[in-house]
Amino acid sequence: MDLTKLDLRAAVSEGAEFELKHPGTGEGIGVFPTVLGYDSEEVETAERDLRRRASRAKDREAAVAILERLPLVRAQTALTGLRGGSGETSTVEKLSALMAKPGFIWIIEQIEAFAGDRASFFSSAEDS
Fold first, then answer.
1. What pLDDT, on the 0 to 100 scale, is given for residue 80?
2. Could you give phi then psi for residue 89, rounded to 5 degrees?
3. Are 57 and 66 in contact (CB under 8 A)?
4. What is the model's pLDDT at position 1?
5. What percent of the chain clears pLDDT 90, i.e. is strictly above it?
6. Pairing of strands 32-35, 16-17
7. How many other CB atoms sit within 10 Å of the CB of residue 24?
8. Is 108 within 8 Å of 75 (Cβ atoms)?
9. Which residues, given as ranges, of the chain have pLDDT below 70?
């Protein structure tokens, strides 16, 4: 196997699309975000910047409040494209804003599950 064909940074930086699932039924809802993997330079930079802000916070509570935003920041940074959305989810910007609302944590969780799984960015074990 030629390991040079398994460049993780290159694979996650291309992004991949997945279908959001209904949070109650698990059925596909016809909305397809494209996301970068959490190993991408963009996501790692956003995470590093957030951690730096937390380390500069005036007190522990402020640092904790900043760090609690980490899942949102990673998901918003990873989100690069959108297909199938409408109304308040018709653009990347609108979906990103929707994720910031507490009732839509399920979108962040689904992006985390997909973008945090390196296998999501390789088509098969035959990528050798």
1. 97
2. -130, 35
3. yes
4. 81
5. 87
6. antiparallel
7. 7
8. yes
9. 124-128
